[in-house]
Amino acid sequence: MPLPSHANDRTPDRVKKRPSWLVGRAHATSLGLLVSAFEASGTGLRPFHYRILSALEQWGAESQAALGRDTGIDPSDMTAALVELEAREFVTRRVDPAHKRRNIVTITASGERMLRELDHVIEGVQLTLLAPLDADEQRQFTELLTRILTREK
Amino acid sequence: MPLPSHANDRTPDRVKKRPSWLVGRAHATSLGLLVSAFEASGTGLRPFHYRILSALEQWGAESQAALGRDTGIDPSDMTAALVELEAREFVTRRVDPAHKRRNIVTITASGERMLRELDHVIEGVQLTLLAPLDADEQRQFTELLTRILTREK
DNA sequence: GCCCCAATATTGGTTGTGCCAATATAGTAC
DNA sequence: GTACTATATTGGCACAACCAATATTGGGGC
Question: Which residues form the HTH marR-type domain (chains A, B) (predicted)?
């Protein structure tokens, strides 16, 4: 359980004011909240399962390789994740008849229900994470982050 | 070399607009820049070495345990890091005569020079990371991040 | 002063994650 | 048809954060 470590410390001034450090700490906080919330949900799933289910819900059935490209998950890790999701009947896998080397992954009705349940879990994390900011500031923060990531002026 | 992975992808909408996801991606970007910059510097040091040297420069000689509390580095990892820093003569360690179980760690003149060199490396990373934002937005971003981390309204 | 507990440094191991290599299989391009 | 590419899977590696066990040493309670 990777809780936000190094929480109440005195960090050198050189370090603690740098955006790269702040972003790293924010990530640790966010990840800690996320993992805790998923654990507390009792679903036995983790954030990357949510990414997979989200991609399937949005783009429909896909091969494992396509799914990996959509979620940034390595093919080898994808195999393991899908075995878990299939065992819990949140997805099904069948060989594509037209392309027999492909596994077509499909989300089940139960998987869609789980996705919606996880939506609430994740929304709760956003609320906690951004609680110190008012609505306007939350929008600003999100917009600035997006700009940094898309590298757009 | 943990470069920012999952860079040019199509991420599910459910995922890609959430602050927790954006923060995670920003962290990956930042970390990639940081590690690359340290590698390119040819110093053979990594970001956590910088944290250690920074703490020593700011608060003076400390025991390893105190240093660990100041930098969020586990005592066992601290030992390994200090062995490296001592081998390169950026710090010295000697047993505290008054408390023989403590190692007093001191930064050397050479270590202080290295610290200043690394300052430039890190400043370059901040410039790259925040390049999409203008000066005002950079200040806003840093302030919002700080508020989130200190949990202050 | 003495005894028990806490602090320190160290070694070694565990866990989780992201990545890569090798392989077997199957489709595609020419 | 041959050579190349894509796919799924297994296994493993590297790295970081963290934890456990140990030996040593001080400090506090009595």
Answer: 1-150
Lowest pLDDT segment from B7-16, B25-34, B120-129: B7-16
Are B15 and A125 an interchain contact pair (Cβ–Cβ within 8 Å)?
no
* Measured CA angle at A62 (ends A58, A64), to 5 deg: 120
Q: Give yes or no for residue B104 having a pLDDT over 60.
A: yes
pLDDT in tens, B46-89: 999 999 999 999 999 999 999 999 999 999 999 999 999 999 99
pLDDT of residue B4: 46
Query: Average pLDDT for residues A106-123, to the nearest whole number?
Result: 96
Backbone phi and psi for residue B94, each to the nearest 5 degrees, phi listed first: -140, 150
| Site from B144, B146, B147, B150 to mutate, A interface, most A CB atoms within 10 angstroms | B144
Rounded to whole angstroms, the Cα distance separating B71 from B56 reads: 10
**How near does any CA of chain A get to the CA of B82, in Å?**
17
Query: pTM of the full predicted structure?
Result: 0.89
Choose which CATH entry (1.25.40.10, 1.10.10.10, 1.10.3720.10, 3.40.50.620) describes domain B16-143.
1.10.10.10
Q: Which among B112, B123, B113, B115 is positioned nearest to B37, based on CA atoms?
A: B123
DSSP string, chain A: -----S-S----HHHHT-HHHHHHHHHHHHHHHHHHHHHHHTS---HHHHHHHHHHHHH-SEEHHHHHHHHT--HHHHHHHHHHHHHTTSEEEEE-SSSTTPEEEEE-HHHHHHHHHHHHHHHHHHHHHHTTS-HHHHHHHHHHHHHHHHT--
